[in-house]
Design goal:
Elements: E1 3-7, H1 11-28, E2 49-55, E3 58-66, H2 72-77, E4 91-99, H3 107-123, E5 127-133, H4 137-142, E6 146-147, E7 152-154, E8 157-164, H5 166-170, H6 173-176, E9 182-183, H7 193-199, H8 209-226, E10 230-235, H9 238-252, E11 256-260, H10 263-274, E12 279-283, H11 292-301, E13 306-310, E14 312-313, E15 318-319, H12 322-331, E16 335-339, E17 356-360, E18 371-376, H13 392-397, H14 407-416, H15 424-443, E19 446-447, E20 458-462, H16 469-478, E21 481-482, H17 488-493, E22 495-499, H18 506-526
Parallel strand pairs: 4-5, 9-21, 11-12, 11-13, 13-16, 16-17
Antiparallel strand pairs: 1-2, 2-3, 3-4, 5-8, 6-8, 7-8, 10-18, 14-15, 17-18, 19-20, 20-22
Length: 527
């Protein structure tokens, strides 16, 4: 039908809101007196956020919300918390729900309610209250509103105080019809149904023969996927795996070299500093590739025993050249360590000749967060100089089962790895990325990293300086599309990221791009 649901921002939309407000609450419902301008400016206009529905350029539906106290309802019935049947820690008030008569087919009301639900969740509101006209009691119920307290108003304009929570909305007609949020985040990723089913299998003891067999299968699949000799699985995130690598480098005692061209390179530096490692750095501008000649010159200037780098710099979407690093490391007898957290499962990874590398069960592999792993191509012995949980040698000496493990997470990872029996997933991710990139560039947006150096798992959009990445991200969120924009390093650079790690329907991608284009247009119109 060409309906657009959005936050009202420009002067034309606000003027139309005043006219619709008059049409509804003066001419139809005699709540206010008439005037010659036929406009009704709400008493809380300066505090209101207006969510609207437009058909072409016409505002055909609206609702206003605010969280400043006292609410208008507080003034009518007393402080609402004293009468609500549920707790409210951060409530908001909804007012002025109105739709033009010719568009009252139900769809516009439902669409506004869905927009309202996403907006409230985004802002952190846990409850909303409204005075709903008794004429529309059935409609309000379909949107998830529940009555409380006594009627307010006057004859011909009675209103029922009502409240809305996440639960009441999700149980309503509008909530059941609400499309699922489409996540274009680098994590958590969408989980396939069969992976969820595996997670819900009956837990088994991590000491049992059955568990050891399952662990052996998972380790075999992970090694086959990466051409690594061995891998150990840990209960924790990628940070734990990188801490474990840092501890092994501490035992190595020699001086190292860390390559930094983004946020996660900086995090390797933090790991190294916390472990008291001796190292030098080669630091490049974020999004700039390393020069092999520069690395070679640095190696010739000092004696290094190890080199640590990020394979895919998630903060920028850049793939660093591990083949070149492997060649340099082999030539100069340097132990190469890699953070492969955002590459395993997204692109083919060859860890032959790599000393240690980290990975995780989430992101590209499409399992649940909670398992990380360290690949190793040499036998490693335990050491009393390392905290026990970070001692890779203990895992090796105990056949991978050094401490308690979740068999549920392991079952889920085992099932997720079935996707890699062929290279089809890699091909699909690359195809999705190429299409999304061309569409984003078609809008006129700049991708930070040249395609030659880009990971197909994630792209970083450089938002024009007159716009804010957070505004665009919020706009996409309330339309049902979750992009990556809330990390501190993205906010600092005014960047927006689209991850391509999930398997999306073509229509989902096209709709996301359409809303991205519309969102930029809406914001541009208000700048």
């Amino acid at each position: 039908m060409g309906y657009i649901y959005k936050v009202a921002k420009n002067a034309d939309e606000l003027n139309q809101i005043h006219s619709l407000n008059y049409e509804t609450f003066v001419e139809e419902i005699p709540q206010h007196g008439s005037n010659k301008s036929k406009e009704l400016v709400d008493q809380f206009h300066d505090e209101n956020t207006y969510l609207i529905c437009k058909h072409r350029d016409e505002v055909i539906g609206m609702v206003a919300l605010r969280h400043n106290r006292p609410f208008s309802l507080d003034k009518k019935i007393g402080k609402i918390e004293g009468q609500l049947p549920v707790n409210a820690y951060f409530p908001c008030e909804i007012r002025l729900l109105a739709v033009k008569k010719e568009y009252r087919n139900g769809r516009v009301f439902v669409g506004i309610a869905q927009l309202l639900a996403r907006y409230c969740l985004k802002k952190g509101y846990d409850l909303a209250v409204i005075s709903g006209t008794t004429r529309r009691a059935k409609l309000y119920a379909q949107l998830g509103f529940q009555p409380f307290s006594q009627l307010v108003g006057k004859e011909d304009a009675y209103f029922q105080p009502m409240y809305l929570t996440r639960d009441t909305f999700e149980e309503s007609v509008a909530g059941r019809l609400m499309p699922t949020m489409k996540s274009f985040l680098p994590g958590p990723v969408s989980i396939r149904d069969e992976v969820t089913e595996a997670l819900n299998e009956k837990p088994i003891s991590h000491r049992s023969t059955e568990f050891h067999k399952l662990l052996s299968k998972v380790k075999g699949k992970l090694c086959n996927l990466t051409n690594a000799m061995n891998v150990q699985l840990l209960m924790g995130t990628g940070t734990l795996a990188n801490d474990m690598i840092a501890m092994q480098l501490k035992l190595n005692r020699g001086k190292g070299l860390i390559l930094v061209n983004g946020e996660f390179g900086n995090r390797l530096v933090d790991h190294a500093n916390r472990c008291g490692l001796q190292f030098d750095m080669i630091e490049k501008t974020w999004g700039e590739p390393f020069c092999s000649e520069e690395i070679k010159r640095k190696i010739h200037q000092s004696e290094y025993s190890w080199l640590w780098a990020v394979h895919c710099e998630t903060s920028t979407g850049m793939i660093n050249d591990i083949d070149g690093l492997k060649e340099l490391s082999t030539t100069h007898n340097i132990r190469l360590c890699l953070d492969c957290i955002s590459t395993v499962g997204i692109i083919p990874v060859d860890l032959e000749d790599v000393f240690l590398a980290s990975g995780v069960s989430g992101k590209g592999l499409g399992a649940y967060t909670g398992i990380s792993f360290v690949y190793h191509n040499k036998s490693i012995k335990s050491s009393p100089l390392i905290p026990k949980y970070l001692d890779l040698g203990i895992y090796i000496e105990n056949e991978g089962v050094a401490f308690s493990y979740s068999s549920n997470l392991l079952h889920a990872l085992h099932t997720a790895l079935d996707s890699y029996e062929t290279l089809e997933k890699f091909t699909h991710i690359r195809k999705q990325y190429s299409f999304i990139r061309s569409e984003v560039e078609g809008i006129g947006l700049k991708i930070l990293v040249d395609e030659e150096f880009s990971s197909p798992g994630i792209m970083t959009i450089v938002v024009p300086s007159h716009l804010l990445s957070t505004d665009i991200g919020d706009e996409l969120y309330i339309q049902g599309y979750y992009l990556h924009y809330e990390s501190s390093y993205l906010k600092a650079n005014n960047w927006l990221q689209i991850a391509c790690m999930n398997r999306y329907d073509d229509q989902d991608i096209e709709n996301m791009i359409k809303h991205l284009k519309n969102g930029i247009g809406h914001i541009n119109h208000c700048v």
